[in-house]
Predict the 3D structure of the following.
Amino acid sequence: MRNIKPIISSLLRSKSGPVLLLTQIVLSVAIVANASFIISERLALIDRPSGIAEAQVLSFRVYNFDPAMDLRKQNQQDQLILRDLPGVIAATSTNMVPLSGSGWGDRYVDGPDPETAKSLPGFSFYMGNEHMLNTFGVKLVEGRNFYPEEIKMGPAAKSQTALITKSIAEAHWGDESPLGKVVYQQDIAITIVGVIERLQGAWVDSSNFEYSVIQAVDFGGAMSSTTYLVRAKPQDIAQLKLDIPKALHLENPNRVIDEFYTVAEHRGHSYSNHELMAALLSVMIVLLLLITSLGLTGMVMFNIQRRTKQIGTRRALGARKADIVWYFLTENYVICAAGAVIGVVAASQLGQQLMNHYSLPQLAWQYPAVTVLGLFVVTTLAVILPARRAADIPPSLATRSV
Amino acid sequence: MFFYYLDMGWRSIRKTPVLSALMVLAISIGIGITITSLNIYQVMAFNPAAERSDQLHAVQLWSQGPDTWDDYSTIITYQDAMHLRTGAIPRAQAAMFRTGQAIQSDNPDVLPELRSVRVTDSGFFSLFSVPFLHGGAWTEVVDQQPAYEIVIGKAVSQKYFGKVNSVGEVLYLNRKPYQVVGVIDDWNPSPKYYDPTNGSFNDAESLFVPFSLAPVEEFAVWGNTNGWQFEPMVTYGDRLVSEKSWVLFWADLADEQAREDYRAWIQSYIEQQQEMGRFTDTAKADVQLADVAKWLEVNKVLRKDNKILVALSALFLCVCLVNILGLLLTKFLKRAPEVGVRRAIGASRRQIFAQHMVEVTLIGLLGGALGLLWAWGLLHVLTERFHMDDALTRLDATLWFITPSIAMGAALLAGLYPAWVICRTQPSVYLKSQ
Amino acid sequence: MLSMKNISKVYQSELVETHALREFNLQVSEGEFVVVTGPSGSGKTTFLNVAGLLEGFSQGEYLLDGVDVSSVSDNESARIRNEKIGFIFQGFNLIPDLNLAENIEVPLRYRGFDSKERKRRVEQALEQVGLASRLKHLPPQLSGGQQQRVAIARALAGEPRFLLADEPTGNLDSLMARQVMELLENINQAGTTIIMVTHDPELARRAQRNVQIVDGQVCDFTSYQKSRSTTSTTAEPA
Ligand SMILES: Nc1ncnc2c1ncn2[C@@H]1O[C@H](COP(=O)(O)OP(=O)(O)O)[C@@H](O)[C@H]1O
Ligand SMILES: [Mg+2]
C-alpha cells in the first residue's frame, strides 16, 4: 500500500478508464445493496412460521350435486368416515384453508353497544369444530378446546365460543388474559375460551396475516361444496389422496372430490411470487458481480498491455513481483473505495426512491456495507489474475523495447 | 464502404477474441436480464381489450357505510346489479359472477366433473367479443325470464358430445338439463380482464349460463364476497337482499356523452336509494366507471414487484453499458497506432468513426442474439421452478424485434465515446513514437 | 568489483539458438568509466542485462561486489538492482503519467524510504542533473535531453555503486549527447562506477576504458584508452 499516493495521482491524470470503473462500481453497489435487501425481506416473509403442521395437513373439496342429499347430515357422516380412515390423525370441515390465498376475513367488537364498543383487529375467520385444533396441529397456550356440544351449525347462532390467536389478544388487551371475554358481531355474543399460540390466515400479503380466530361452527354442508382438512403423517398423504375419494364415493357417488393440496403446497403457491422475485434478484446480483469482475479483468488486462514497458522499467529499478501485483491491487482498491463511498450514497438514494414509489421499507445500512465488502473480494479476484501475469513481465524489457 | 467496415469489424473482433467475447457476454447478460423482466412486465401490462379498452367500463359503486372501506369495491351488491341491468344507455351490459357445477352429459362414459361456470347476461359475449363457432348467446328475453340454456366452449363440446357443433344438445349441470345454444372458439384473454378478482392470469371459463337463473338455482359464489357490516347469510335469499358485494358489472359506453348520461342515471338511482336508507356514506356515495386500463390498475394486475424488477434491470443494463464502454475504449486505444497509420494515409475522421461504429453494432447484434437466448432460457427455468402461469413466461412476439434494437442501441450508445476518442487520434503522435 | 568469468548466454527460440555471449570475460574495478562499443547485434545489451541482473545467464561465474549472483532469487536480484545498480535506458523509460518527482521516487519507494528521505534525495538528484525547477512537470512536457537527465536523476537517487547505461544518447542530438556525457563524467568523478554502451565514437574516445564486444566476446582496448588519456593530459599545458 505504500504506493498509494503516486497511484492516485496517476489515476487522476489518466482519463476515462478509472471513471468508467468508478461508475460501474457505484451502480453495482446501488443495485446489489437494494436487491439483496429486497431478497432478504422476501425470504423473511417466507420464513414466518404458520403455526400449522403444514406438511401433515391435507385439504380437499367435496362438491355434492345430488339434489336429494341432506348436506348437513352428509357432512357429519363424511367426517366420521374420514376419521376412520387408516392414517388419519384428525379431520374437520372448514370454511377456509390457511395460506391458500382465499378465505374469510372478519372483525369483532368488544362490547354489545355498537356506539361505544371498540373494534378488535381484523382477522382470518376460521369456522371449525372441536377437531380443528388438532387437525392444524396448532398449540393452545391458554384456556381450552371447544366442547362437542358447543359446536353450532352456522355463524348466526346467538351465543357462540371462539379461540383466538395470542397476537389478537395482545393487540387488543395487552397483557390481560382474554379468557372469558365476550366479543360481539351485531347481536351475536362470542365468548373466548382459548388462546392459540400462532395460526396464520389465508392471505400471505395481508397485514392481518398473523391474526386468526376459530369459531365453534361446523360450516360443512352449508353449501353444496364443503372443504375438509385431514391431518396425517406426510408419508400417508399420497395414499389418502386415493383412499378419501374411494371411501366418500362409496358412501354416495353423486359428488366431485378434488383439489387435494397440503398446506405446505398452498404455502409454495402463495409465496411463489416472492420466491420468483428473490430468485430473479439473486440471478441479477450474481450476474452483476460477474459482469463487473469480467469488465475489471478486461480493463486491467488492457492497462497491463499499455504499461508493459513501464512495468519492465519498474522491475529494472528494483520492484519485486509482489510490488507489481500490489500496484494493480492498490489501484483497484483506490477506485473501489471511491466507488464504495459514492455507491453507498447512491444505494440509499435508490432505496429512498423504491421506498417512495413502491412502499418498500427503509434500506438497512448493513446491505450497502456487506455489498462493498463483497465487491472488494470479487474485484481482488478479478485483478489478481491479470496482475500476476503482469508481474511476469521480464525486467529486460526495459532495455529491449525501445 | 459499409461492407469494407463490416469486414474490418469482423476481423478486429476475431483478432481480440477474449476482449470481444467479454463484450458480447456483457451485452448479452444485460439484455437477457432486461428482456426477462420486460417480458413479464409486458404480459402483465398487456391490455387485452385493445381498441375497445376505453369503451368497456366496469361499474363500481360506493355503497359502503361511512368509515369502512377506503376504496371503491371492485364488486357490487346483487340488488344494485339488478337495477343496473335495467339501464338503457349502454350498448351492451352484463352482470356476472363465477360458480362451479358438476357437469354430465347423456354419454355415460364421461365421468361427471366439477367445472367453473360463468353466470352472466347475454350481453357478455358482445361486450368481450367472444368468438362464436355455432349458434349464439341466449336471447335477451332469457335475461329476464330464466331458461336453462348454456353456451359452451369448443373443447367441452368435443369432450361431452364428440363434435364441435353441439347446438341443441343437452348438458347436465348439477343434474339439471341445459340446452346448448352456442359453441364458442377457444377464448382465453390474458390477463383475465373481465374478472381478475380471483387470479388475473387464470383461464377463462368455458361454460356460460344466464344470470337470471341465479336466484332459482342458487349458484354458489366462487369468488369474493365482501361485506362491511355483519349480516348473517343463512339462506341464498339473505345473500340476494344483503349489502354484501359479490357481482361484477360491465357496460359498453361508446363515448363521453354516453358515459355522462350513464353516470347521471346511476346518480339518480343512488339518491333514490339513499332515501330508502342505503348508500349511507353521503359524502362519498358515487359511481366510478373504470375503463379496462384503469380496471387492470385497480385490480393490481401489474404488481409493483414487476416495476421494481424493470427498474433494477434497466440499471443493470446501464452497468453492462459502462462495462462495454470501458472494454471498447480498451480495444480501440490498443489500435491507436494502426489508426494513426490510416489517418496518415488519408482516412477522414468520419471514416474512422464510421468504421468503429460498424464494429460496435456488430458486437451489439451478437450480444442481442445471445441475450435473447439467455432470456428464453431464464424464462423457461422460471416457469419450471415456480408455479408460474405459462402466459407470464412465454416470450412475447414483439420482443424478437425489440431485443436486437435495444442491443444495438445500447452498443451504439456505449461505442459513441470510444469511437469519438479514436477518430480524434493525431496521425503524427503514433508515427513519431514508432 | 564486477567480475565475469566465462559467461555464456544462449537465447533459445523455437528454431535457432543464439549465442549472445560466449566465454565472456570482463573485470571492472571500483570507480572505472567503461565504454562498451561493438557492432549491432554483438551482445552489448545482453551483457548489460546480465551485468544488471535483468537477465540470468547460461554458464560461467559472475561476482558482483564479491558476491556470487549466479543463483540469486528473483526477489533478491530485485533488491540488488534497487540498491546497488542504477539504469539509464536509450528510450528514457520515464513513466508518462507520473511527474518528474514521482518518477524519480519510484526506486526509492521500492526501497522503503520515508517521505522525508525521498524528498531529500529527489531534490538532490534533480539538482545534480540541473532540473530542480521542473519537479511537477510530466515527462512529455520535456525535451529528449531533459528526459534523459531525469532518467539519470532517477538512477542516481538511489545512490547506486554502479550505473549501467544502454546507449543513453542514442535518441539525442549531438549537443544534448555531449551534455549527458558530461553529466555522466561528473558522476563518475564523484565515485560511481559506470558502464555505458554507445555507438558514438566521439563519446567512446572520451572514456577511460573502451571495451569492444564482437560476436559475444570481449576485445579490451584498455591500453589504447590509457595512452589517449596520457596524451590528452600532456597536451593540456600546450
Ligand atoms: N530475447 C531474445 N531472444 C533471442 N535472441 C535474442 C534476444 N535478445 C537478443 N537476442 C539476440 O542476441 C544477440 C545480441 O543482442 P543484443 O545484446 O541486443 O545486441 P546489441 O549489441 O545490438 O545490443 C542478437 O543476435 C539478438 O538477435
Ligand atoms: Mg542494444
Observations:
- Chain C touches chain A through 35 residues (CB under 8 Å).
- The radius of gyration of chain C is 18 Å.
- Residues 79 and 111 of chain C are 8 Å apart (CA to CA).
